[in-house]
């Protein structure tokens, strides 16, 4: 399953999740501070691949994910296992996801302020 589908599933889980006792984050799981910028980058890639901006047809999406993992000094397995942990613990994931959304909105506002326009092809 592509990560985009994971994100859609997580959003659903986040909104139906119920309150639970404080969750201890295992040492093997990326911290919320580590997860947030990684998820921002993943969302940007997903948006670019699915939206009007095309990153290039010659590279598969996994190539871009690999670059994100490299940029943040993690492995794919570290991200996926951490994402699975947070998906199972929505009370911990919601604040992370709120920061991700805030960052994406801020990036969009910055682009708009700079007058960046995205051309759509019909």
Describe the protein's architecture and organization:
The protein has 122 residues and is mainly α. It has a domain at 30-113. It contains five helices and no strands. It has helices at residues 3-16, 32-50, 61-71, 76-88, 90-113. It is globular. It starts with a helix and ends in a 9-residue tail after the last helix.
What does the overall shape look like? globular
- Tell me, rounded to a whole number, the average pLDDT: 78
Cα distance, first to last residue? 29 Å
Uncertain residue ranges = none
State Rg. Answer: 16 Å
Order of helices and strands: HHHHH
Using DSSP, what is the number of strands? 0
Helix content: 55-70%
Biggest sheet details: none
Enumerate how many helices there are, as a single number: 5
Give the class from helix and strand content and strand pairing.
mainly alpha
Content of β-strand: under 5%
């Amino acid at each position: 399953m592509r990560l985009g589908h994971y994100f859609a599933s997580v959003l659903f889980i986040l909104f139906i999740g119920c309150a639970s006792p404080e969750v201890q984050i295992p040492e093997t799981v990326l911290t919320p501070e580590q997860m947030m910028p990684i998820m921002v980058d993943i969302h940007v890639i997903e948006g670019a691949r699915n939206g009007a901006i095309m990153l290039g047809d010659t590279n598969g999406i996994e190539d871009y994910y690999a670059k994100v993992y490299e940029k943040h000094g993690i492995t794919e397995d570290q991200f996926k296992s951490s994402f699975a942990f947070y998906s199972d613990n929505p009370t911990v994931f919601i604040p992370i996801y709120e920061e991700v959304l805030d960052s994406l909105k801020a990036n969009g506002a910055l682009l708009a302020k700079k007058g960046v326009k995205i051309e759509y092809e019909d």
